[in-house]
Design brief:
The protein is α/β, with parallel strands linked by helices. It contains ten helices and 14 strands. The structure holds adenosine-5'-diphosphate and magnesium ion. This is ABC transporter ATP-binding protein.
Length: about 290
């Protein structure tokens, strides 16, 4: 099981959305990180086979994916970022419909749907119309349809947007389990969603792959650059101007505890903080600082 993205680029008129990306993807969870516009969706659409690269190629176990034809449908599962539903279908009817498209037998389909409804805690709403579901439930239906054919390669584009914290935890557990013997590629700009489950991460910026590695490896890149300190609240606006604050917490009326990124300590009582993947991300994407979700 190996997905090989070999020097792939995608050009849209004067925009190079994906720029010479090479990645060798093996079983496990792969987090594809990057700010909006980095090229994640374009890369995933090419891997999912719904858009052709301008140059380079993508192979699965040595075979170019555009030569896989019908096998392709069995190998890949894909959740697009903008997922179009059939609002008048019930959850169950919709999943039955997708099963038929994917060529599952009626028996396989019944078993698979019931398992997935259970795993994604959708059993209670299986007879509800999709139009009536909450955002998080719709996302889970989207994840279920991508998993229906038990794909060897699962591609999920921003799967966690709209999930509440409990749903996120269940989702992470489900994927960690699934990824033991499957390839799972997840794009997100919500770093904590992949931090603990990603076997490896790939970070994209302006269409290019700027770093890849395990969470531990990537976090080393900001070792010694993350600090925490206490400052008087009245000076906060001033510190916000001069420091790259990634987190802050009020400690009583006149003190605030801050976490910031810098090559060196910038206050007298700063102490080194244990770096997290999000710190690396914010180091690489300064404009995203303090504009986080979830
Ligand atoms: N079909 C398209 N035509 C023209 N430009 C596009 C198209 N799709 C994406 N882009 C541009 O390519 C860049 C990467 O977009 P995208 O892959 O959606 O990034 P991400 O998913 O990381 O937010 C953006 O600048 C976007 O505007
Ligand atoms: Mg996207």
């Amino acid at each position: 099981m190996e997905l090989y993205v070999n020097n792939v680029s995608k050009q849209f008129k004067d925009k190079r959305a994906v720029d010479h990306v090479t990645l060798n993807i093996t079983p496990g969870v792969w987090g594809l990180l990057g700010a909006n516009g980095a090229g994640k969706t374009t890369l995933m659409r090419m891997i999912a086979g719904i858009m052709k690269p301008t140059s380079g190629r993508i192979e699965y176990d040595g075979i170019p994916i555009d030569r896989l034809k019908d096998e392709y449908r069995d190998i890949f599962g894909y959740l697009p970022q903008e997922f179009g539903f059939y609002p008048e279908f019930t959850v169950k009817n919709y999943l039955e419909y997708v099963s038929a498209l994917k060529g599952l037998t009626a028996k396989e389909s019944r078993r698979r749907i019931s398992d997935l409804l259970e795993q994604l805690t959708l059993t209670n709403v299986c007879n509800k119309k999709i139009a009536k579901l909450s955002g998080g439930m719709k996302r889970r239906v989207g994840i279920a349809q991508a998993l229906l054919n038990d794909p060897e390669v699962l591609i999920l584009d921003e799967p966690t947007s709209g999930l509440d914290p409990a749903e996120r935890v269940r989702f992470r557990n489900l994927l960690s389990e699934f990824a033991r013997d499957h390839i799972v590629l997840i794009s997100t700009h919500i770093v904590p969603d992949v931090e603990y489950i990603a076997t490896r991460n790939a970070v994209m910026k302006d269409g290019r792959l700027i770093s890849t590695g395990t969470t531990e490896e990537l976090v080393k890149l900001v070792d010694g650059k993350v600090w925490s300190a206490m400052i008087p609240t009245k000076y906060l606006p001033e510190y916000e101007q001069k420091l790259r604050i990634v987190n802050l917490r009020n400690e009583g009326d006149d003190q605030v505890s801050i976490r910031y990124l810098s090559e060196r300590p910038r206050t007298e009582d700063s102490v080194p903080a244990v770096p997290r993947l999000e710190d690396l991300y914010l180091w690489l994407f300064p404009q995203d600082t303090l504009e986080r979700e979830g």
